[in-house]
Structures are given as C-alpha cells and as structure tokens.
Task: inverse folding
C-alpha cells in the first residue's frame, strides 16, 4: 500500500535577521491512509512546525514532502482540517454556524454542509447544542465543536496541535476515548501533536518522537496494542514499554 | 430567583436611585434655605420649562441635531479610517502615530479655529462634536481589527481562504465589540463637543441659551438646560447600548 504522507529528510530553518534557527533537522517518516500518528516531543522540538508544513502554511528548506497517493488523492486547498489547543470558535456565531465555517470558506453547498455539520455535532456528542453560543459550552465541549469544524468539509487529513492540552486531566482522558471513536467512525488520517507521552501512545497507531536542542527526529515506531483501546490499556505491559522507550529517548530516564 | 426577576430588581433599584437623587436635591435646597439664584429646587427648575421666551423645544432640537450629526459623522469616518489602516500596514505605520499625537490636541482648543473657518452655527458645532468623537472610534476599531487569533488565520489559510473572507467572516465581526466600546466613549464626548461649540459662538442651542440666561441670573433655566443636554446624551448612549445588545453576543461585549 502506498503511503499517504511521505516525508524524507525534511529540514526547516527559521531566519530572523542574521540568526538562523534549525526548527527541524531531518524528519523522515511515512503515514498510511487512515492512520492516527502521534508526534510527541518537548517544546521547541519542531512538532508544530512540522504540522504547519503539512498544512501548507510553511515551506521547507530541504528534503521531500508529499501528501496523497493514487489511491487517496489529496487536494492541498481543501483536504486539510485543523484543530488547535484553543477551540478558537467565533464568539458571535452559534455552534452550528461555527462548524460550517470551513465549508463557507471553500464555497461548498450550504444546505448540505449544514446537514453534515448537524451529523458531525451528533458524532462528537453535541446533539442539541447546535444553536448555543460558544460561551454557553464548557472547554471540553468547545473543543468537540472544534473537532466537528475540522471534519465538516470532509478533509482527507486532520492536523491536531495539542488539542487537549488546555483541558483538565479527566476531561482529557475522556476526550482521548472520544477522539479514538471519532477517528474510527470518520476513517480520517490524523496527525496528532502532543507533549503527553502516554497520550501519544494511547492514541497513536504510530508514534514519531522528536527531540529538542538540536531539533531532530529520534524515533518512529508502530504501536501494537489491542483494539478497541480502552483506559485499561494504560496498565498493559506493552503500554509501559512504549512509554519507557519514549521517556528514554527524551532523556528523562 | 430567575434571571428576569433579577433584571427587574436591578431596574427598580436604578429608578429608585434617580428618584433618591432628586429628593435629596429637593431637601438640600429647602432645609438649607439655598437661594434660588444659587441652586433652584427641582420644582423651580421644572417651572423654567413653562417660560415662553426660552424656546426649549427648538433649542433642544438644534443641540440634538449637532450631537447626533457629529456623532454619526464620527462613526462613519472613524470606522472607514480604521478600515483603511487594516488594508495596508504602511498606511497604518505612517498614520497611527500621527493620530495618537493629534488625539492629544485638546479638541476644545480647535473650537475658535473651526469658527473662524466655518463661521458660527449648527455646522461648525457639528464639526467640533465630530472632531472629539472620531478619535476613540478610530482607535478602538483599528485595535479590534488587529486582534485576530493567528491560528484562526492559519485555519483560513490552510483552506486557501481569501483576504476578503478573513475580513468579512473573522476580522469585522470580531472588531464589532471594540467598535461599540469606542462608540460608547464617543457618545459622551460628542455631547461635550457640541456644547463647547455653542459656548464659543452660536445663536441657538441649549449651550447658547445657557450663556443668555447666565446674564439674567436665571439659574433655574440653566439647570433645566443642563438637564436637557444630559437627557439628549442619555438618549444617544441608550441607543448605542440597545444596538450593541442587538448586534453583539453577550460574551463578546466590552464594558466601557
């Protein structure tokens, strides 16, 4: 099977005046269609930069970036969904109108998009909240709406940048389970950036480990854990092995 | 207690506070035997309305016209200037420091000049009201248009959204609460501007009337004029608040 995302020796340098800052030195990994890949690493390891390169927001200074395959063609102008650490819902729009924003930007047929947005809100567990304003929802619920927004235009690739980083620990665990369910039901390819090691292992079919100072890619391995994943898995022996492996790479052991 | 009960209670308290002020005023004048030409009682002040030679209605209309016209002009021009700023970084970098300096000019001091340029009357007074009210609107609108979450821009850019889409879907609605906070400040300033204009040179309006009755020491009429000016100000401010309630989601409102 041809890989959906293909990265070879990707390099990114930020320049500020005369100073150069190496954000990514040598990232090489593949992602198959339908995978959920965790990018894990400390602040400054270039994981968000990598996400922006995948989103087409940043160029790269060396190496090869290719997204899409014959089997899964990819249109960079409409096949990206994004979720950030903050929900970033528009305060003045009701939840349903927030969710359809990407469809509006792409000029998709509105009635169909609104129907799809309703279905997605049901999928993320927000049925009945379509006409609420963001301030009437909790942080976790707002983030669910943000996930629905990232899916409304049916993108092939969903990029998530520490989407649960601002939530409390319990809500975060709950959202992890929800994300696995949404991922299964939507069948999307997801790249999930986090600095939570156990979150990375719990969610990912594959984990890419990045280290900071200097920024480089330290490891890339598949996670083989039973599915469907439940919170019990966190006490699974292999779960511990995976997290230890990452701790070691990050020099925390 | 539900929400509407709470609101009703707050309204009742607000009305009571106003009544209390008038009662306190009445008691102060009566118990203190304050002479009428120093401070008239509420009743004497109200009686000034009956005096036929002050033409209250016409003068109020003149002052109201100056305030509302100056304010409306400030709103339109202020928002347009702020919009021009956002279209070009260079324009903003050039004009913004200039505006901050110009804002420091005591606009009242421009009054005599404006009268030299435009003679006296409704038009120059409108201009003075405009010149005071326009600055807060420009500054808050420009600020609101600038305050866009960078990640929200990323989201639009990742879908190859146009600058126009960013502007209409995110920037402009996002700036609305800021525009209203400027409008509230401007409403108060526009009233002051129009009155200053009338003080400096005018042949009608409530400010003009105040100077006339000052000569004859008709203090009740002066009080009445102040009250009417205040009521016009409250009308303008109230309209702005009502419009804000209509257009800006509760959570996004900026109190000012």
Result:
């Amino acid at each position: 099977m041809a890989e959906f995302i293909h990265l070879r020796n990707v390099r990114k340098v930020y320049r500020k005046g005369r100073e150069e800052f190496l954000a990514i030195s040598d990232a090489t990994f593949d992602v198959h269609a339908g995978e959920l890949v965790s990018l894990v690493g400390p602040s400054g390891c270039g994981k968000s930069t990598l996400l922006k390169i995948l989103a087409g927001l940043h160029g790269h200074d060396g190496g090869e970036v290719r997204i899409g395959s014959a089997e899964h063609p990819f249109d960079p102008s409409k096949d990206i969904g994004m979720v950030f650490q903050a929900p970033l819902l528009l305060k003045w729009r009701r939840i349903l109108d927030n969710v359809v924003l990407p469809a509006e930007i792409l000029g998709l047929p509105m009635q169909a998009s609104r129907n799809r947005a309703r279905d997605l809100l049901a999928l993320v567990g927000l049925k009945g909240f379509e006409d609420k304003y963001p301030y009437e929802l909790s942080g976790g619920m707002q983030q669910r709406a943000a996930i629905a927004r990232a899916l409304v235009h049916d993108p092939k690739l969903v990029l998530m940048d520490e989407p649960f980083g601002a939530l409390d620990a319990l809500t975060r665990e709950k959202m992890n389970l929800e994300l696995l369910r949404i991922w299964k039901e939507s069948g999307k390819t997801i790249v999930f950036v986090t600095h939570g090691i156990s979150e990375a292992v719990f969610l990912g079919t594959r984990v890419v480990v990045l280290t900071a100072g200097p920024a480089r890619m330290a490891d890339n391995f598949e996670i083989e854990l039973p599915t469907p994943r439940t919170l019990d898995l966190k006490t699974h022996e292999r779960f511990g092995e995976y997290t230890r492996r990452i701790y070691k790479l990050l020099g925390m052991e | 207690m539900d929400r509407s009960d709470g609101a009703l209670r707050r309204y009742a308290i607000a009305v009571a506070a106003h009544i209390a002020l008038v009662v306190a005023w009445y008691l102060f004048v009566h118990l203190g035997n304050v002479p009428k030409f120093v401070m008239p009682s509420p009743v004497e002040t109200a009686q000034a309305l009956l005096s036929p030679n002050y033409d209250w209605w016409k003068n109020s209309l003149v002052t109201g016209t100056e305030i509302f016209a100056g304010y409306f002009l400030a709103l339109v021009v202020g928002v347009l200037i702020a919009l021009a700023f956002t279209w070009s970084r260079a324009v903003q970098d050039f004009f913004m420091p200039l505006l901050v300096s110009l804002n420091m000019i005591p606009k009242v001091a421009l009054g005599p000049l404006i009268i030299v340029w435009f003679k006296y009357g409704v038009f120059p007074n409108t201009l003075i009201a405009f010149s005071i009210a326009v600055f807060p609107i420009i500054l808050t609108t420009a600020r609101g248009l600038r305050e866009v979450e960078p990640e929200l821009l990323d989201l639009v850019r990742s879908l190859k959204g146009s600058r126009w889409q960013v502007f209409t879907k995110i920037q402009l609605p996002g700036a609305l609460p800021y525009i209203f906070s400027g409008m509230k400040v401007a409403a108060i300033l526009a009233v002051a501007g129009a009155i200053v204009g009338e003080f400096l040179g005018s042949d009608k309006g409530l400010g003009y009337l105040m100077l006339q009755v000052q000569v004859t020491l008709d203090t009740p009429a002066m009080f009445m004029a102040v009250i009417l000016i205040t009521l016009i100000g409250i009308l303008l401010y109230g309209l702005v608040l009502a419009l804000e309630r209509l257009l800006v989601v509760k959570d996004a409102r900026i109190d000012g």
Notes: The domain at 33-59+69-79+156-253 of chain A is CATH 3.40.50.300 (Rossmann fold). The CA atoms of residues 162 and 194 of chain A lie 5 Å apart.
